[in-house]
Amino acid sequence: MAFTSETVEALVEQFTKLPTVGRKTAQRLAAFVLKMPREEVVELARALVNVKDKVRHCSVCGNVTDEVLCGICTHSRRDARTICVVEEPNDVMAFERTGEYGGVYHVLGGAISPLEGIGPDDLRVRELVARVSGALVLPEEARARVPAAGDDGTMPPAREVILAMNPNVEGDTTAHYLTLLLKPFGAQITRLARGLPIGGDLEYADEATLARALEGRMKV
Ligand SMILES: [Zn+2]
Hints:
Helices cover 37% and strands 12% of the residues. The protein is an alpha/beta fold. Zinc ion binds next to loops.
C-alpha cells in the first residue's frame, strides 16, 4: 500500500535507505513527520545537513569531530602511546562506554574487503603507520592542544597497538595485514581476546564482554 501523495512517498523512499528500516517502519516515520510541528521538521532537516557540512575527521585519529582534533586526542590524561585501532567511530563509543580504556584510538574508516573492492589505500592505514612509527607531525594550530606533542609538533611512536577489528572475515583480514605492516616499528601488537560473538559487530557487544576482551588482549 502506498500513500496517495507522491511527496510523502518520496520521504518513505528516503527512510527505507536507512539501516534496519523496512518499508513499514518507513511509512510509520513518514506519518510521524506529517504530524510534527514545522519548526521541529526544519530542525531535523538542518541536523541532517549539518552532519555532512560541519563534521570532519580528527587529524590525528580520524574520529568524527567538529574541530581539527577530537576530545580524546586533546585529553590531558589519555596515554597517547597506546593506540586502539578500530573500524568505525561507533566502535570508539563502544570502548568508551566500558570506561576501562585510557589510551587513544585510530579509526580506519572500514575494513579490508576484497569482495567489496576495499583495500588498504581506501582506509586510514598510511596515517596509522605514521602514528605508530613516530612520523606524525601535528598541524601547527593543533600542537599546543595535544599534551604528548613535542614543540615541533612530532608525536612519540606507539608503545602498544591494540587491533580491535570486528570479529568477522574482513576484520581478521585487516588485523592480519596490519600486524605484518606494523611489526617492524617495534611497538607491541595485541589483539582483543576471543569471546566476542563471531561474525558480530563490536559496537553491539555489551560493555562487560568488551571490557573483558580488552583486558585479556593477547600479543600477536
Ligand atoms: Zn582524535
